[in-house]
Amino acid sequence: MLRLLSVVCLLFSAFSYSEINNQAIANPDQDGGWYSYGRTYSEQRFSPERAINDQTVSKLSLDWSLELPSMKSLNATPLVVDGVMYFSGTHSVVIAVNALTGAELWRYDPKSLAALQQNRRQETMMSWGTSRGIAFWKGRVFVGTADGRLIAIDAKTGVPVWVVQTTAIDGPLGITGAPRVFNDTVIIGNGGSEFGPVRGYVTAYDTETGKQRWRFYSVPGNPADGFENKAMAMAAKTWKGEWWKHGGGGTVWNAITYDPEYNRVYLGTGNGAPWNQKIRSPGGGDNLFLCAIVALDADTGEYIWHYQTNPGETWDYNSAMDIMLADLELDQQQRKVIMHAPKNGFFYVIDRDNGKVISAEKFSKVTWAERIDLTTGRPVEDPSARYMSEPALVWPSGYGAHNWHAMSYSPNTGLVYIPTQEIPSLFDDSELDLEQWQSSMFRWSVGTNKVTEDFPADIGSSSLLAWDPVKQQKAWEKPLPGAWNGGTLATAGNLVFQGTAAGHLVAYRADSGKELWRFPVGVGISAPPISYSINGKQYISVLAGWGGATYFGLSLFAQHGWEYGVHTRRLLTFSLQGSATLPPFAAPLTALQYVDNPKQVIDEKKAARGKSAFAETCFYCHGYGMVAGGGAPDLRASTMAANKALFQQIVKGGLLQQRGMPAFSGFSDQRIDDLYEYIRWRARESANASRAVQPQP
């Protein structure tokens, strides 16, 4: 009875709400909560809690869990405010739960999939359902959606207060990143530069009313229309040709950091649209502000400075990874710096005052550049990496040496903990007419040859890397399985937590990397863990839900065995006093049963055309080479895809729209027939090396 009363009192006090504002988010203590995406404005993801530490973590046990069977991709950072945990799931569904018990308090579904189906028709293929997080400010929760809306929700009731459309309703831009809040302002970017002529930007809105305060574009538009500000006029001088017809890119899809000491916002901008600079900006140029950190005045959006990590980018590199703030002692001086580990494989320490690079060193295998010239701040490139006249095998790939998976920093150890991966990519545009190439709306349009084949499972490797930003060198490193392992959490208990692609939450000593504890969660983890405390009791929580770019498939991701519809997603919370157990869960799938009828005659010409069509659209969810990564069915093993009439109803008629499969109503019967033949061809090819299952009549 006493426990029940304490829970009721806690929830009653929760709905009175602390004043979550600039001071609260900047406060390292946060009354035991986790108030913002990176916990504080520093984005360090460091918890001062120390009850769970390197001496006690062996006793860490499951305290409670919440099954999320309707979810697929779970990439978000939960927030904890006054005993209530808030998080976003697949398709930006926001859920509030009691942080002590996991009991659901409310759920808000923005119906983003339905909005995509209504406004973009067949182009719902754009959405993996990814949402990397939410923001909290003065009793409201803010979330972005795949169809480009920003929604303010009453944190007590789960009822929307206001909604704004931040993107063109029928365009390819959508929101997957977490909003940030400061000064009664909420800011959000967007992504989608691979699917049309896209020009990136961020928009700031009033948290109370949803009224737009300012907008900043990351690349210049058509000069004939005039430039929005001096920064765009300056940037236009670094472009060639008619770049605006291709959009330019530069979307701000993940990294946004507010700096309360300077009252600035730092934007991490994305890759070019298309990737291939020879198309986007023939003749070269730096192409500002692609692949850059851009500093803006937080109140006006006015440009202050920028640092570009990849001038004239052409490899799908970007600076959309964490922008972390810290005070470091460098050359016997305290410096206010940004720490940044983008896709390109260099770790940057940058002066927050003026944007000048202080140091930059390789933290992963890098072949596109030899080093960063600290005098100019520019990379010293290998010219052959630009695939000007022949294909180029380059490290890292567009998956990045570090992607969006959050890194963390411990001021106690002075180390940054980075989820890294080493995956190469072959860049080749030999099949394209570069002068005539045009971006196709809602089709994969990056300006390089189509990828039609699977890659071997061992093409890449990954690790948890502890990096010393002062010495610019590795402190320790732990090899990890496969690729696409989760983000990290550092704590004052000398611990680093990380979820793995193989389905474990693991704790390491922060100073040495020694593994101290691991727990199987039943599915791969992409999201970063958090820590919070209530009444002096510390908790560790993580969303377990394989997703994001794993939808691209490949054996690199499929090797982990997380099959669509088989492995339930869940929210898990641990404590030293935990005594809960997980429901039984399926083991990873070790082999698929391919569906093939040996008597069926496959039309090789149609299959060849279908292979090309598949590489334009279907691969986005069903995987390169038709090797699915777990976010959608592997069509080689699908009985539905083996039934020609049913296949047509699904693809063209939208039979499975409610499950996330778009209706490609614009596809011709021939195109669907070609795709069907290609699926049958791939199933047979795979079945030759494995046991086949006869399709149902």
TrEMBL record:
Annotated ranges, domain Cytochrome c: 605-683
UniProt KW keywords: Calcium, Disulfide bond, Heme, Iron, Metal-binding, Oxidoreductase, PQQ, Signal
Residues of the signal peptide: 1-18
Protein residues bound to Ca(2+): 194, 271, 316
UniProt cofactor(s): Ca(2+); pyrroloquinoline quinone; heme c
UniProt-listed SMART domains: PQQ (SM00564)
SUPFAM superfamilies from the UniProt entry: Cytochrome c, Quinoprotein alcohol dehydrogenase-like
GO molecular-function terms, A-Z: calcium ion binding; electron transfer activity; heme binding; oxidoreductase activity, acting on CH-OH group of donors
InterPro entries: Cyt_c-like_dom, Cyt_c-like_dom_sf, PQQ_b-propeller_rpt, PQQ_MeOH/EtOH_DH, PQQ_rpt_dom, Quinoprotein_ADH-like_sf
UniProt: pyrroloquinoline quinone binding residues: 132, 176, 251, 343, 403-404
A GO CC annotation given for this chain: membrane
Active site: 316 (proton acceptor)
Keyword Cell membrane: no
Cofactor binding comment, as recorded: Binds 1 Ca(2+) ion per subunit.
Gene3D superfamilies xrefs: Cytochrome c-like domain, Quinoprotein alcohol dehydrogenase-like superfamily
NCBIfam families: PQQ_enz_alc_DH (TIGR03075)
PANTHER family in UniProt: QUINOPROTEIN ALCOHOL DEHYDROGENASE (CYTOCHROME C)
Family designation: Belongs to the bacterial PQQ dehydrogenase family.
Name of the protein this chain belongs to: PQQ-dependent dehydrogenase, methanol/ethanol family
Organism placement in taxonomy: Bacteria, Pseudomonadati, Pseudomonadota, Gammaproteobacteria, Cellvibrionales
